[in-house]
């Protein structure tokens, strides 16, 4: 659930600068709401008729790698086996961790989000949450009295910053004092049916609100528990309903890597900037065919790994190319455009599996050795997602990819295929095949490499990167400058007429110097 860039700040920046100088047959379809698209008005849409066509890899030995830790003594602070399957949830509504907050402890489910940096919980009753944290009942809660607002790509909240102690029944041993925001107001943040009551932002402090001086949850754990600066994440929802019972498993391993959660090798890609977990995408393939786009298109204006985003989100130009390639290489001649945009579901008989109709999707990432790359691939079982069961015979699916105006986001659609390592100590993100990424006993994700990078640019990330804090600083600076100029103008207007210049017959104001002729338009 990556925080949105400061669009108002960017608009203000632009305005101020201007002022100073876009087989199987599905029997029918149903309307689907994804994020904000509204459901079609009136009667349900007509049926959609579908017709078949006539890196550097590393395999870490226990204790061998700097900054890493593998399964350790169960009697110590770190016991990774105790953290296995400590998550519940699904890709449609997120994966959450149980946490005990305050004294005496109050149990809450906390959404795991690698695309933001604040730790926040519901602080007042809300119609869409079943529990909330009451600071008045905790003897260890301390309010900082600082208001904080966080906006996400979907939803926002406002609360008050404070501190309290937390423990994790299936996490690190011990209690730790953490910065925590109690949410007092929210908009489209807590949604109907969610089973979590707060959010755990695991990105860097550059994204923390109200400023980067707020120590993040994970930074506090690293300092207080003396654990390595690394965590890893597995989400086990491949091929399962994206909004089911909420009992799908997963694991958040704090402080290292648990060997039982992956198979094969770990492939690492460098972290380009330490705000989001920003990586570098080199190219995309659909059905083994390169999209042939400039690699900068994949990274406009960033490419990030975000567990709080449910779908694989692609920049608009990339999304359009992917949809065209899937439609062209699939075994379906005609497909409703509403399916691709997320406003309709496609339905098949339960005995039919539509995944065989669609191609594999591959993402190439730059290896730690910049002259090489590796690719992570997801099969259709991950991006053609079951979402609704109708009666005893019909299963409906959604398209697990959407367009984005400001980022390529590797969200749950992709992450459910892999064990993902966030190695902050060595500024890299690792991917390994997840054993739970199987459907009907067959794996639905792959990692292959290395490949040469001779056919792509040496740098696919723009050298000019306007991070949100920079935009706000620039906006405030220009607002201050504008205020000073306005103040000077007011003073000049208030100068008595006797002090103003009086024109004589020798003064000439012609068309070439006239403000009327040269005013800005």
From TrEMBL:
This chain's source organism reads: Taeniopygia guttata (Zebra finch)
Which sites are catalytic?
113, 306
What InterPro entries does the record point to? Aspartic_peptidase_A1 (IPR001461), Aspartic_peptidase_AS (IPR001969), BACE (IPR009119), BACE2 (IPR009121), Memapsin-like (IPR033874), PEPTIDASE_A1 (IPR033121), Peptidase_aspartic_dom_sf (IPR021109)
- What range(s) does the Peptidase A1 domain occupy? 95-432
Keyword set, alphabetical order: Aspartyl protease, Disulfide bond, Glycoprotein, Hydrolase, Membrane, Protease, Signal, Transmembrane, Transmembrane helix, Zymogen
Q: Where does the UniProt annotation locate this protein?
A: Membrane
Q: Which residues are glycosylated?
A: 369
What protein family does this chain belong to?
Belongs to the peptidase A1 family.
- What is the protein's membrane topology class? Single-pass type I membrane protein
Chief location of this protein within or outside the cell: membrane
Q: Does the keyword Acyltransferase apply?
A: no
State the superkingdom.
Answer: Eukaryota
Q: Which cysteines are joined by disulfide bonds?
A: 236-436, 295-460, 347-396
UniProt GO MF annotations: aspartic-type endopeptidase activity
Which protein are we looking at? Beta-secretase 2
UniProt keyword annotation of Glycoprotein present: yes
């Amino acid at each position: 659930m990556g925080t949105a860039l400061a669009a108002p700040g960017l608009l203000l920046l632009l305005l101020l600068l201007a002022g100073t100088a876009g087989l199987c047959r599905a029997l029918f379809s149903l309307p689907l709401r994804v994020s904000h698209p509204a459901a079609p008005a009136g009667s349900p849409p007509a049926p959609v008729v579908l017709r078949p066509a006539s890196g550097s890899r590393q395999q870490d030995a226990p204790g061998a790698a700097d900054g890493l830790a593998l399964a350790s003594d169960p009697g110590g602070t770190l016991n990774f086996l105790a953290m296995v399957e400590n998550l519940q949830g699904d890709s449609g509504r997120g994966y959450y961790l149980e946490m005990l907050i305050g004294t005496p402890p109050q149990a809450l489910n906390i959404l795991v989000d690698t695309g933001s940096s604040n730790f926040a919980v519901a602080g007042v009753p809300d119609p869409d949450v079943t529990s909330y944290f009451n600071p008045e009942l905790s003897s260890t809660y301390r309010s900082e009295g600082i208001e904080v607002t966080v906006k996400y790509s979907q939803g926002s909240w406002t609360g008050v910053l404070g501190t309290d102690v937390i423990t994790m029944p299936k996490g690190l041993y011990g209690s730790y004092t953490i910065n925590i925001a109690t949410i007092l107001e929210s908009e489209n943040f807590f949604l109907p049916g969610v089973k979590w009551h707060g959010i755990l932002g695991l990105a860097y402090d550059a994204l923390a609100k109200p400023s980067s001086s707020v120590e993040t949850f994970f930074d506090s754990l690293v300092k207080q528990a003396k654990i390595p600066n690394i965590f890893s994440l597995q989400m086990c929802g491949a091929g399962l309903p994206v909004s089911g019972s909420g009992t799908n498993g997963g694991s958040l391993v704090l402080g290292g890597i648990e060997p039982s959660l992956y198979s094969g090798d770990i492939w690492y890609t460098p972290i380009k900037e330490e705000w989001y977990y920003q990586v570098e995408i080199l190219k995309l393939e659909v059905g083994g065919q390169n999209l042939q786009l400039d690699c900068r298109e994949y990274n406009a204006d960033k490419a990030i790994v975000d567990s709080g985003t449910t779908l694989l989100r692609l920049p608009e130009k990339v999304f359009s190319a992917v949809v065209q390639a899937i439609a062209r290489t699939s075994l379906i001649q005609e497909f409703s455009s509403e399916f691709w945009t997320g406003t309709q579901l496609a339905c098949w008989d339960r005995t039919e599996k539509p995944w065989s109709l669609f191609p594999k999707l591959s993402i190439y990432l730059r290896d730690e050795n910049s002259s090489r790359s590796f690719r992570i691939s997801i099969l259709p079982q991950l991006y053609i997602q079951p979402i609704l069961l109708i009666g005893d015979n019909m299963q409906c699916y959604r398209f697990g990819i959407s367009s984005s105006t400001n980022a390529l986001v590797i969200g749950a659609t992709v992450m459910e295929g892999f064990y993902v390592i966030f190695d902050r100590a060595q500024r890299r993100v690792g991917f390994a095949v997840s054993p739970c990424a199987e459907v009907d006993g067959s794996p639905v994700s792959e990692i292959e490499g290395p490949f040469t990078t001779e056919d792509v640019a040496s740098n696919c990330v723009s050298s000019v990167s306007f991070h949100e804090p920079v935009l706000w600083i620039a906006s405030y600076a220009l607002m201050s400058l504008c205020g000073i100029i306005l103040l000077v103008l007011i003073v000049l207007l208030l100068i008595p007429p006797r002090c103003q210049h009086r024109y004589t017959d020798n003064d000439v104001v012609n068309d070439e110097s006239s403000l009327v002729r040269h005013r800005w338009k």
